[in-house]
Write a sequence for this structure.
């Protein structure tokens, strides 16, 4: 076997392994590191600068952004720290935690950070929020492909965004051009 055909065979094997693991229903987190969680929480604060919600998504012009963490995630403590005292577009931030049995509670949120362990659960929750002005964000691989609006991808502190523009706009939200420049989708 020549070096070229060996490399080609190795690439094909890696591709097949990747393809087969993509069909597994278990959700794989982008980053479980402290550095990764801190980076994602900073992105979460900045997302509010680059997304516009319809006026009726808030009770008043200065009502806070309501970020809800749905499921089992340690993101809450990182978001609390990142959002403490921050203001964006004249709005402060409020972080709430919801367990996975309260998907109806998400309908009172502006941003829903979904941290669930299976892609089936994530799809069900995302579908229940379709068409609503609730920004769905997730940290599992391929989150935006599952119908979420913004999915994180990368490793450690090297985090980027995958944005599902169709789903975002379907919820009545508008993303700025700066938001879409960071996207890969």
């Amino acid at each position: 076997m020549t070096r070229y055909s060996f490399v080609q065979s190795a690439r094909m094997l890696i591709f097949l392994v990747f393809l087969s693991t993509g069909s597994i229903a278990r959700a794989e987190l982008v980053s479980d590191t402290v550095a990764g969680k801190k980076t994602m929480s900073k992105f979460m604060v900045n997302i509010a600068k680059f997304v516009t919600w319809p006026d009726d998504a808030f009770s008043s012009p200065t009502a806070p952004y309501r970020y809800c963490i749905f499921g089992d995630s340690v993101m809450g403590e990182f978001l609390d720290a990142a959002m403490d005292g921050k203001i964006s577009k004249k709005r402060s931030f409020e972080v709430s935690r919801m367990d996975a049995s309260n998907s109806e509670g998400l309908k009172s949120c502006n941003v829903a950070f979904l941290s669930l362990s299976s892609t089936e659960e994530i799809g069900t929750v995302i579908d229940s929020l379709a068409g609503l002005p609730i920004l769905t964000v997730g940290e599992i691989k391929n989150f935006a492909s599952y119908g979420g609006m913004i999915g994180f991808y990368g490793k450690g502190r090297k985090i980027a965004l995958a944005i599902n523009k169709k789903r975002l706009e379907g919820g009545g939200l508008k993303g700025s051009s700066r938001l879409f420049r960071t996207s890969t989708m």
